[in-house]
Amino acid sequence: MGSAILWWSRLSVRLVSVCLLCASVGKQCQIQNEMADCSHLKLTQIPSDLPNNITGLDISHNQLRQLGPANLTKYSQLVYLNAGYNSISKLQPELCKNVPLLQILKLEHNELYKIPDGVFASCTNLTELNLGYNRIDTKNDPFKTLENLNILDLSHNLLKSANLGLQQQLKNLRVLILDSNEITELKKEDFSFLSNTSLNSLDLSSNPLKEFHVGCLHAIGNLFGLVLNDVELGENRTKKLCTELSNTAIQNLSLSRVKLSYVGKSTFQGLQGTNLTVLNLSQNSLSVIEDDSFQWLSSLQYLNLKHNNFHISSRLFYGLSSLKHLNLINSLTGKIEDFSFHWLYHLEYLIMDNNNFPGITANTFTGLNNLKYLSLCNCNTNLQRITNKTFSSLGNSSLQVLNLTKTRISTIESGAFSSLGHLKILDLGLNEISQELTGREFKGLNNIQDIYLSYNKNLALQSESFIFVPSLRKLMLRKVGCSNLALSPSPFHPLQNLTVLDISNNNIANIKEDLFDGLHKLDILDLQHNNLARLWKHANPGGPVLFLKDLPNLRILNLKSNGLDEIPVQVFKGLFQLKNLDLGSNNLNMLPATLFDDQTSLISLNLQKNLITSVEEKVFGPAFKSLRILEMDSNPFDCTCESIAWFADWLNVTQAHIPGLQSQYICNTPPKYHGSLVLHFDSSACKDSAPFKLLFVITTAIVMLLIFIVLSIHFEGWRIAFYWNILVNRVLGFKELDRQQEEFDYDAYVIHARQDKKWVSKNFISLEKHNHFQIRFCLEERDFEAGVSEFEATINSIKMSRKIIFVVTEHLLQDPWCKNFKVYHALQQAIEQSRDSIILIFLQDIQDYKLYHALHLRRGMFRSCCILNWPAQKERVSAFHQQLVMALKSNSKVN
Ligand SMILES: *[C@@H]1O[C@H](CO)[C@@H](O)[C@H](O)[C@H]1NC(C)=O
Ligand SMILES: *[C@@H]1O[C@H](CO)[C@@H](O)[C@H](O)[C@H]1NC(C)=O
Ligand SMILES: *[C@@H]1O[C@H](CO)[C@@H](O)[C@H](O)[C@H]1NC(C)=O
Ligand SMILES: *[C@@H]1O[C@H](CO)[C@@H](O)[C@H](O)[C@H]1NC(C)=O
Ligand SMILES: *[C@@H]1O[C@H](CO)[C@@H](O)[C@H](O)[C@H]1NC(C)=O
Ligand SMILES: *[C@@H]1O[C@H](CO)[C@@H](O)[C@H](O)[C@H]1NC(C)=O
Ligand SMILES: *[C@@H]1O[C@H](CO)[C@@H](O)[C@H](O)[C@H]1NC(C)=O
Ligand SMILES: *[C@@H]1O[C@H](CO)[C@@H](O)[C@H](O)[C@H]1NC(C)=O
Ligand SMILES: *[C@@H]1O[C@H](CO)[C@@H](O)[C@H](O)[C@H]1NC(C)=O
């Protein structure tokens, strides 16, 4: 039992180690452009099989323990070596002996403590050395040979002192990072090793600094930048610091999170003689700044006061005469006194986002004559109703950008921005504006280029809405509830320079064909999330609405989520510049052939989440030509040869990026392929069957044709014979017998049995008397010329009549004279003249076979309008007369 367990455990250990082996065999250094990336490989040694001409080596995140010149012999071209995140505790002297070109050496996150003499002796080309997150002991001037070093990072090293050496060194150092150490004081001589150095940045953040000894910062050759974030300074030590900085070259001072809650008149006095240009006082819970506190900072250009909580008094900014950039994000409390900003006559950028103050008055911004950019985003103040007074204090400025997003605006009065004639960008997005835009709201914005109105409550547009801003280039109207755009003229007509128009998410269901007419510069059109499906339907009254017809420069068109289930074939015609087309999330199934014929330079096409079953060349060929991104996933593809073979072939060769091709392009039909990937569709089978298919089609066609002919002859032989006769007569030149209407003396010759004479006289003579119809019948008894044989008279009369009426009764069928001679001549006449000129009137119900047997006529030989039945009911007689007149007047030419 025990040995079995042992055996099992041994086996599993072996299995595990085999697996680990596999894993590490699979991974190896990636080499690209002479740079070898060997990070995260659990290496304990530097690989010896890399190309020896590599210039960069990243061996970070491994398990190296020591590093010496011998390890680098092979890679003498190295310029960059990253050995951070290892367990290196020992460096050997002359580290750079074999890598004289090394410029960047990163050794952060190791276990370095002692740095033996001469480790960096030959690292003369080194410009950047990162030793952060170690426990470096800085005795013995370890860096004294690094004459070209620019950046030295010794952060997180438990250093107790900033003193890195006794003798003057590092004359080219620009950045010294000493943050997160244990430095409590800066002594007078601490920085004397930098007495010949011009530091752009000295970072002492997150040190428990308590004391700045007199002259400590003056020891540095030039100190341009000092970062003391997260050092507990408070007001007293801040003041002491500023005194120590007086007459230094300091330009950039960062005092963020230094617990400076109060600034007095003299706090910054020490900075008076400096050229300080950048001051960061953010996140200090500053609640009191005394008047004139910044009077000493006449060179200051950037002042960051964000995330504090102070009141702007009228003299707060006194003396900041060079200030260009003021950040007041989330920093104010109470009201802003009038004329507070007028000291800042060079201010260009004023950012006041996320504040809560009672109101903007007619003098809040007075004096900011150089202001270019004002942001009041997310301010809770009196902006609900913007009047022509709100920004009147900026009338003398040349403000170019005004950002008023999320400021709870509900109404814009006319002329609200009329004092901002230089404004280029106006952002009114994410507000609660609810009004009809009459156009006067934007009056005076003579140089405006962009207006953002997206995400407002309800903007009703009119034809004049943008009449005063013809210079507009970008108009954003996303989700503003402007569902009615069926306006004439279009509100966008004045905007001939428009390049971007966003009217998405508005539930627009009705627009006119000319909505975008004249927007010849339009580049981007966003129409997604509307309800445009009906406009493109075949059955739309008046036909599909082709609203994209006049946009020759359109590059990006978004029609996602519009419920589209039909696309008219002409709709994208002329859009030659189209590069991105999004038709995703619609209900499209069959797209018409040639739809994309003008879109041969399309780069990105989105048709995902539609109902597309087939992807055929005749539709998609042009669109796929230069495509780089295709998104057509989540469609119910029909994986048959006809529907998908061309697409499968294209997928196999295309260079285009197709996200989800391996998972989201799935066959729906036929059942055999349901659930399998389109990518796996084997189109080779389709090609083999092609000749057989053609043969099959031809054979089927021939057989069907034969069957048709046989059936036709069987059932319709007599009709064929009839028309054949007509045709032969035409071809053989009986054409001259075609005559004009006027050439006939009678409208109709009436053939009837003697017994039916009474009915004929009664009905036909009464019709003739009807002036309105102007009909003349040829009745044997009445109209035959005297002295001419009945035989001859019949032939002549038939010739002179436009139509021939048979009054069909049992008597007629038995009348031999009619049966033989008259019917024969009538038919002959009809055939010769190519005329469908016979009208049958049935006084009785006569079977078709009897008719054929007796007169060689069938009902089917005649047009239905030429077959009339004498009605049994009296009331219908006039309708019968009407029918008869229609039949007589009908064109009798056989076509
Ligand atoms: C460096 O070389 C020494 C001696 O050849 C060797 O023991 C050590 O593992 C090597 N270190 C690395 C990181 O390659
Ligand atoms: C570096 O060496 C590799 C092979 O060792 C060679 O293919 C490559 O061309 C060399 N690169 C340069 C810049 O010499
Ligand atoms: C630094 O590298 C350059 C080549 O990039 C070389 O010419 C120069 O001699 C090197 N400097 C030192 C001090 O080694
Ligand atoms: C700051 O200095 C003043 C006088 O120099 C002193 O009264 C005050 O207690 C000091 N504040 C702190 C927090 O040390
Ligand atoms: C401030 O700048 C001026 C002009 O650039 C220069 O003359 C002066 O020396 C600078 N002051 C200090 C303290 O660096
Ligand atoms: C501001 O609007 C009011 C009416 O609302 C008008 O009387 C006044 O003239 C307008 N002021 C300017 C400068 O347009
Ligand atoms: C306005 O500010 C908001 C919030 O900071 C920002 O998202 C938006 O892009 C700004 N608008 C412009 C036109 O820069
Ligand atoms: C439209 O743009 C052109 C060229 O940039 C410019 O000359 C013209 O003044 C602009 N039209 C309007 C109404 O601003
Ligand atoms: C894809 O193309 C390769 C060669 O380009 C060919 O061997 C392979 O059969 C093709 N696959 C399909 C499914 O057409």
List keywords for this structure.
single chain; 895 residues; alpha/beta; Rossmann fold; 5-stranded parallel β-sheet; 12 helices; binds 2-acetamido-2-deoxy-beta-D-glucopyranose; Toll-like receptor 3; leucine-rich repeat; signal
Short description:
By secondary structure, this protein is an alpha/beta fold.
Summarize the structure in words.
The protein is an alpha/beta fold and 895 residues long. The chain has a domain at 754-889: Rossmann fold, CATH 3.40.50. The protein contains twelve helices and 47 strands. Helix 2 (234-245) links the parallel strand 16 and strand 17 (252-254). Helix 8 (790-799) packs parallel to helix 10. Bound molecules: 2-acetamido-2-deoxy-beta-D-glucopyranose (NAG) (9 copies). One 2-acetamido-2-deoxy-beta-D-glucopyranose binds at residues 51, 53.
Q: Round the Cα radius of gyration to an integer and report it.
A: 49 Å
Main sheet characteristics: 26 strands, mixed
Give the amount of beta strand, in percent.
15-25%
- What percent of the residues sit in helical stretches (DSSP H or I)? 10-25%
Distance between the termini: 105 Å
List the helices and strands and how they pair.
Elements: H1 2-26, E1 30-32, E2 35-37, E3 56-58, E4 66-67, E5 80-82, E6 90-91, E7 104-106, E8 128-130, E9 151-153, E10 175-177, E11 185-186, E12 198-199, E13 201-203, E14 211-212, E15 222-223, E16 225-227, H2 234-245, E17 252-254, E18 262-263, E19 278-280, E20 288-289, E21 302-304, E22 325-327, E23 349-351, E24 373-375, E25 385-386, E26 401-403, E27 411-412, E28 425-427, E29 434-436, E30 450-452, E31 458-460, E32 474-476, E33 484-485, E34 500-502, E35 510-511, E36 524-526, E37 556-558, E38 580-582, E39 604-606, H3 617-620, E40 629-631, E41 637-638, H4 641-653, E42 667-669, H5 684-731, E43 746-751, H6 757-769, E44 777-778, H7 780-783, H8 790-799, E45 801-808, H9 810-814, H10 816-832, E46 838-842, H11 848-855, E47 867-869, H12 877-889
Helix pairs in contact: 8-10
The site of one 2-acetamido-2-deoxy-beta-D-glucopyranose (NAG) has 4 residues, from helix 4.
